[in-house]
Each structure stands twice: as C-alpha cells, then as structure tokens.
Amino acid sequence: MSETGSGLPSGVPPAGTLIEVRDEEWLVRNSGELRTGEFAIDAIGASELVRGHTARFLTALDGMPRILRPEDTRLVADESDGYRVSRLFLEAVRRRLPLPQSEQGLALTEGFLLDRLDYQLRPAVKALANRFQPRLLIGDVVGLGKTLEIGILLGELIRRGRGERILVVTPAPVLEQFQHEMWTRFSLPLVRLDSVGISRIERKIPVGRNPFTYYKRVIVSMDTLKNQKRYGPWLRDVEWDAVVIDESHNLLNRGSDRRELAEVLAHKTDALVLASATPHNGEMRAFTGLVRLLDPMAVRDAARPRAEELHHLMVRRTKVSDEVARVLEDKWAPRGESRPLQVRASELEEEVFAELAEVWLANPERGRPGARGDEHLFPYVLLKSFLSSHRALFATAREKLAKLGHALPEGHKEVTDPSPAGPTESPAREVASLLRLTELARRIERAAADGTNATAKLTGLVAELRDHVKVGPGRAARAVVFSERRETLNWLGTVLPPLLGWTDPKDGEAAVKVMHSGVSDTVQMGYVDEFARAGGDIRVLLTGDGASEGVNLHRQCHHLVHWDLPWSLIRVEQRNGRIDRYGQTRPPEFRALLLTSDVEGALDDRTVAEKVLAREAKVHEVLGAVEAVTQENDGAREERRVMEALLGRATSEEAVADLEAVPVEAFEAGEGDGAPGTDAAAPPVERLTMSEFGTGPAPVGAPAHVAAVVDGTRDGNTFGAASDLDLDIDLDDFGDFAPTTAGDGTDDGGADTGTGTGSPQAPASDIPTVEELRFFSASPERNRQEFVLAGLAELPDLGGLRAGLTVTGTDLSFEPPRDLADRFDVLPPGYVREQGITRRINLTFSREDAADSLRRAREDAGSTSLWPDAHYVGELHPVVEWITDKVLVEYGRQRALVLQVGPEKAPDPVFLTQGVWSNAEGRPTAVAWLAIDRLGTSAPRTRELTPALLAALGVGPDMPDHWTPSDPAATLQPLVPLAVEETRREMKRVREVAEERVDSPLRDLERGIGEWRQQTLPGFEGGKPKQQEAADRLARIAARLRTTGEPMVRVLAVLEAGS
C-alpha cells in the first residue's frame, strides 16, 4: 500500500499503471471489483522473469499492489531512427489507457470496416450520453443494420475500458453470422458457445470450471443459455461489462425461461443492449418490464409509460426516416412489388374446401364444443393448416382428434400410412368431419405422388421457381420459400428437387434445404453460410418464421416466395426483411401463392391472405414499418385478432382493416394522429415507440434521475456543429482530445459492407467525435499500420519473426508467435484451420483490400467459407493489442525516452507527462496529457498536449534521425521530480473539472435513487422488496463510478533541443 500523502494512487490501479507484485513488475491491463473492498487485477509481466506472462492478482490474497513512483523515472536517450521507439511507446500508452468516463464523443468511427453512416453511429452516441450506465433498446426496423450498430457501440465501450468482458445472446441460426460480423467488420473476436462449441470448450477447461470465466468475450444462443439448471449458477457468478440480447422481443413474456435469463444478466452487467425490430407486442406491462431491465427507475406506472420516460433508453428508425433515407439510395436497392400468384384448387382440394365450408366455417361456433382458451378459433386454425398443405391439415386434424378422444390407430397416424379399415363416420359431427379431412389429405398425398396437379400450390411454385426465378441445375439463381408449418417444409424438401430438374438425389438434396426449429443450430448456421456464398450449392432455402429470425439471406438472393401467408402484417414484413435489407444490391421481389376456390363459403387465400399482402406493401411504402400503424405488435396476436373478427361475423375486409389502428392512407394524406403538419393529439406511446422514436431532443418532463446523468445535448439528432459541442471534458482546462467532425485530417474512405468501397457522406455530420493524439500519422488507418510495422521492426524479441515478414503496400504476412496465435483461439476452429492462421497470418490495413477479401469469400465459385483470407486490422484487432502490450512491457518500466527536436521547437526541455483520475472500478474519470517546460524557473508552464501542440513541438513521422549526442542523466534527470510536481498541481485543477462533469451528476443521481426508493410504483415486478433491492444496487454502482483516491502520474517522454 502507498503511504498517506505520497501522492500515489490509493485505490485500485487503472489500466496502463506499472505495479510491483511478488517482487516483480507488472503492467495493469484491466482491474475491477469482485466484492466490496476486494479487487481483481489483470496484468502482463514487465520484469525479466515474468515478461510476457499474463496473470490475475486478487487483492484479498496479495494486498493492494505497490505503484512505482514517477519521481524515480529514468531518462534514456532514444537512438532509434526517427525516434521511432519513443513514438511507438507513446502510441502504445495512448492505446492502452481507456478514454475517460466523461468523454462521450465517438473515437473509433475510422477504425471499422464499414461505410460511415450517421444513423448507424447514432445508437452508440445515445448510449454513451448516459454517464451512469450505457443501456439502450435498439428498435430499428428489419434490415437497417442493428448488428453493425451493436458492433460500433461495443467498440466504443472497449475503448473506454467498459468492454473487457462481453456476452452476446442471439437466436441459434444467427450465432455464426453475428460472430462473423464482429470479426470481419470490427476485429472483435467472440468465442462461439453453440452445442458443438460448448462440448469443445468443456474438453479444454478443468472439470467444474465456469466457461464464462475462461473466455472473456462470448456469443451463445438464447436456447442454450435459457437452461437455468445448467447455466444459471455459472451466470450468477460472473460479472459482465456488456451484455447484448438480440431479438429481445422474445423476452416479453414474464415468467418465461428467456425472461428469467434476461433478469439475471441485467443485474450482472454494466452496459446492456437489447435489439429487436418489434420491441413490444402492445402489452405495455410486458414492455415496461423489459424497459426496467435497462433502467428500473425509468417508468413510474407500468401500465402507462410515458414517452419522456422511455426516450433516453430507446432508439428506433424506419427505412423512410430522413437520416436513413438520404444515405441508403445506393446501398439498398428499392423494394420490388409484392405480387400475388393465384392458383386454382384441384378437385381434391375443392372437396376439402367444401368440407371446411359446410362443417366448420358456415357456423364457426360449432368448432368449440366445451371450448377452452383459443379452441373457439379452431375452425380458422384448421383452415389455415389446409391453406399451408394437405400434410399440415392432416397433422392438425390428427392432433384435434386425439384431444377429442378419437386418436388415430397405430399404423395410421401418418399421412403416408394406409387408411384405417372401417367407417370414417362418427356420431359427433366434428369428429366425423376431421376423419373425412384426414382421408382427403391421404388421397391428395397419393395423387401428388403421381404428379403435381393434385396440389395447385406445388404446381404454381414449381412454375415460379423454374420459369421466373430460373432455379435449376447449372443455374445460379436462388430463392427463399417461407411456410408457417414444419410439415409443409419437410414435404416440399422431399418433392421439390426432382420437379426442379435435379435427377440425382444427392444433387437435389444439396440444392434444396429445409430450415426450421427442429434442425440443429450448427446445421442451420451452415445453411445460412452456404446460402450467402456464390459457390454454395443451395438454390432453394425452405424456411419457417422462427428459424429465419434475424438471419441475413440477401447476399446472393433477391427472390422470396410466400408458400402460405401469415394473417399478420408484422410477420409478412419480417419475412420480407430477410432479403430486403441494407446491402441488398438488386430490387427484392416477393411472390405469394394464393389458393383459390369456387366453393361457396370457402375462405380461400383471397379472403384474408391477399389483403394482408397488399396492406403490408402499402404501409411499408408509406411509413417504412407496419408497426407504426398496427393495433397489435405481435404476429400471434394479429392472427388471433383477425380470427376473432371473422368469428364475430366481420367481413374479411373489416378484419384486415382492423389490424391498423390508423389507416395508412391517413398518414399518406398527412391526417394521421401525430402525422407531420397536423394538430391532432399525439398517438399513444405504444404506437409512438413503433414509429421513429428517440431521435429528437429529449422531451420535457423526463425523470429527474435522467436529467442528472444523461447529456441532453448529445441525445439524438440535435447536436450542433462540431465547434459548438459542449464536451464533457473542458478542453480549455485539460484533456487529450479535441472535437472534430469525421474525416477531418484524413483521406480515408469508408469500406462498403456490400461489394464497393463506399462513398463520402453528403450532409455535414453532427455526430460528436474525438480526435486522439497520434504519433505516426494523422490518418487513423495509416497511423495504425505504421504503429504495427514499427513494433514488428523494433521489438527485440521479434527478431525471428522479422525473417519471415512480408510487407506489400498495405498488406503484411508473417508467422505468428505462440503468444499471438493463442489470441486467435476463440475464432471458429474450421476457419483457423482452413486459413492456417496459426501458421501464417495475412493482414491488410486497406479497407478496399479487406472489402475485396470479403467479396471473394462471398462471390468466388471456389469459396468454401464466408470468412475472408485476409484480416482487416481495425482498432480492436488482436495484433494491435499484442503489439501494444509488448511495447509497454519492453519500454514502459519506469523509464522515459528523450527525443531531440529543433531548437526553435523546444528552446527549453519539454516534459510530456500524463495524469489520470480514476474511480473505484479502476477506470479513468479524467485524463490529462500535458507538456511542461520552463522547469527550474519561477514560472513553469503547463500546456494541454493537443494534436496541434504535438505538431508544433516537431513530434511526428517526419522527425530527423539524429541530432547531437545526449546525456539525459546529467542534464535532465534533476528536472523529473519538478515535472511530476507540476503534473500533480495541474491534476488538482483537473479534479475540479472531474467533480463538475462526473461526480456531481452522480451524487445528484444518488439523491434521485433515494427519492425513488420511497415511491410507490404500480406494477413493479417483485413489489417493494425488489424495488428496495434495485435501489441499493443502483446506489452502490453510482458511488463506485465517482472519482476516488489520488491521481496516477507518469513521465512519458522528454523533448530537448538538438543542435
């Protein structure tokens, strides 16, 4: 422990601090509290015996480590060419130290393989505007790029030291897709814990070891993790910096396994990101419960949340939102038409229609003898099963017969089984009808085996795929076919291949794949990957609604066929969004097979399905999202609403119209409630949050605790010009950053997520950003490249690596040492093996080359994987982190290098120092980079080290190699204690700014928590005890985020005049 009054930090040391533990020196990489008063410190060895080794120290065992005194810093002359070693060290220091808690501008907008689109940066800005906990519900409509928005936010959290431990939870089919995006776009490796991944990891770690402590950044499926019996104890034993839950609408049902999982994770993480294109289902209590996972204090009345209570926690845009529409013209092909394809029922199908019309639909109430729950809707369930297929009809009828006590006998339970012997009649009218329907289904099955004419939709589908889409052997065209029923999908998977021309069963099986919830997660991910590659064999993907949730199917496909249609605007939109999304280069085309009938009273597909198709297309054209007008915000509830309306004798037109709370034509005419230019009352919050939401200025009346910790000037679309930004760090007082707009000082273009390389953004950007100090180039991309190359060239222990290093322009290749190869262990084993990453790694710093590598993986006929053969080295890439760690260990052991500059640049020695105030978590609350000169005089001068001052001092890539020989020990060493003293004096002033910007708002929040604790909250889950528990937890977190202890001070380098 440091002595009182020593001026050394008295709390847990922040990242970048040099400490002494067990008589060895270590560099802190991360630190955090395990329990009250006990900390874990992750470090890497710096002294000779432990150099390069990683370790975790527990203060409960080792005590608080000794922090090495800055006054004892030795000055050493830098004799490297262009003072490259000094710049290498300064750049590494800058990279390792997290941005301060008070900094809310974006720092990595130029560090990812993305087009720079402001609307995709907006969620990160909104989340970071919260000084307390970055928590957000991203509710953008299908296709806008929520995964990319999540990646941007995670990157910014990592840069702030708030993303060391990350957990991403997604639907199973999306696991590899999400993992792929995080790695290829953001250089962020996540270990995938699917069913195979978990088994592999359990073989590697000690028995009983928690896999979530073994890996720090994990992606896992919701279905895997919801097994509370197996994973609950592990999850409750781990603290996360950030948790992401994709498709979060699956959490709405209180009491479900998924919701229980979400509640556990919400209490075990700092940052929480929920993502869903349908954020709520219209049941406001359920939605409020979800919101309270983000902020328990946000909503006072669970049944009636107000827009101002939700604004700081949610952002939602549609395709027609101004900020979206103006940048997507060349990145998202216009949507094609939704065209109905009417097919006339066959004779056998007409018999089914007649049976349904006479027994079930003429008087639907008959379908509910002693009905319970939704059983009164069974006539329409039965109808919809037939509109899907004869096999689905058979399965529905069989299940109903079993419920009525008339189960089909063994040997006759499948549609392909022979008909049972004996009569098919029954005294019960409904039972007799169901038996007749099962027999009709069998007859259709037998007739279909001889050709397609017995099933009109199959005839229509084959004609559409073969003649219009041009699917078949030797052709590249692809299509997605949706059906609601698993029985239908399985049947189509069997009968389609030969009808489309594949005569070899193996070829047909490879070309047509079936994907539904009964298919394993790894198989589903394989299908999605193959369907996205030009060289893949899959030409027709038959999928259900659940299995395709969140999946990108647009890379090689722009044709989608609805084999059957949900009676839901939302589900039709979600289906269409699989190919109608950001990055689609061809206008997506939608077709729907509609079975028609001449039977009087038959409710064929023209009755409801065709009208739903037309309304979805109309609403999407006008508003960009159907949820903006729907009565219900859940597909199942919409289906039920239609059925209830039909049961109540509404016409089909009335039933479909009732899905919309406000007719879209009213919005088109500017007359809808809340429509622009109207004086109508604001729409209810449930519809506000399904339109564009959370993008404007914070509304009046926000809860008091929100005003305390959310920067209103940064919250939404109302930022001023960059020069007018009210940054949380007073740049006139201190700080290491200056505000800038994107692209200033650089010539880097964006990398396209499609096949191009991006284009500059036309409108002036209002996204707040920070321009960090850079010591190799003003261009972030060039600076990153030169930093890595300098490290590879200068680090003494990389001599062997240099022998096999190949550098060609912006590309480089080398054999990774073991300590680097270990960092790639979290990537998919197949990818690591195929690309030989552990044997030789191929890197590129060029966005254009990286985009081309992605394109080749997707488009080349010989490609067997979507994973690229060259890694884009973004800001978060493991190679950059590896170089950073090695540089700090090699050159950061209580010594500072001396550089010589022109006499006119530094007539007096200039000490470059750094001061850091931290909180109890070990994360910086305020950082100062300083240039101090005129030491030893009566008026020493301290200036903020800005990029402009750094250039004025002559520090940069064009520094001359050598000046006169220097003897720092004799001339400069006596000034080190003076430089430390001046830095500490300046840090006292910086502390006052930190008090204003960080600590005072947090104290206001703590007072707000105390007041909230006394309130009575209707509908708060768990009642008053849970409210008190939440208040205690929030108060503890707020207290730990306040600045504490003494500042860390470091002498980084000295500039002296050369001659």
UniProtKB/TrEMBL annotation:
<protein>
    <submittedName>
        <fullName>Helicase</fullName>
    </submittedName>
</protein>
<dbReference type="GO" id="GO:0004386">
    <property type="term" value="F:helicase activity"/>
</dbReference>
<dbReference type="Pfam" id="PF00271">
    <property type="entry name" value="Helicase_C"/>
</dbReference>
<feature type="domain" description="Helicase ATP-binding">
    <location>
        <begin position="127"/>
        <end position="297"/>
    </location>
</feature>
<feature type="domain" description="Helicase C-terminal">
    <location>
        <begin position="464"/>
        <end position="636"/>
    </location>
</feature>
<keyword id="KW-0067">ATP-binding</keyword>
<dbReference type="Pfam" id="PF00176">
    <property type="entry name" value="SNF2-rel_dom"/>
</dbReference>
<dbReference type="InterPro" id="IPR057342">
    <property type="entry name" value="DEXDc_RapA"/>
</dbReference>
<feature type="region of interest" description="Disordered">
    <location>
        <begin position="738"/>
        <end position="765"/>
    </location>
</feature>
<keyword id="KW-0347">Helicase</keyword>
<dbReference type="InterPro" id="IPR038718">
    <property type="entry name" value="SNF2-like_sf"/>
</dbReference>
<dbReference type="InterPro" id="IPR049730">
    <property type="entry name" value="SNF2/RAD54-like_C"/>
</dbReference>
<dbReference type="GO" id="GO:0005524">
    <property type="term" value="F:ATP binding"/>
</dbReference>
<keyword id="KW-0547">Nucleotide-binding</keyword>
<dbReference type="InterPro" id="IPR001650">
    <property type="entry name" value="Helicase_C-like"/>
</dbReference>
<dbReference type="InterPro" id="IPR014001">
    <property type="entry name" value="Helicase_ATP-bd"/>
</dbReference>
<dbReference type="GO" id="GO:0016787">
    <property type="term" value="F:hydrolase activity"/>
</dbReference>
<keyword id="KW-0378">Hydrolase</keyword>
<dbReference type="InterPro" id="IPR027417">
    <property type="entry name" value="P-loop_NTPase"/>
</dbReference>
<dbReference type="InterPro" id="IPR000330">
    <property type="entry name" value="SNF2_N"/>
</dbReference>
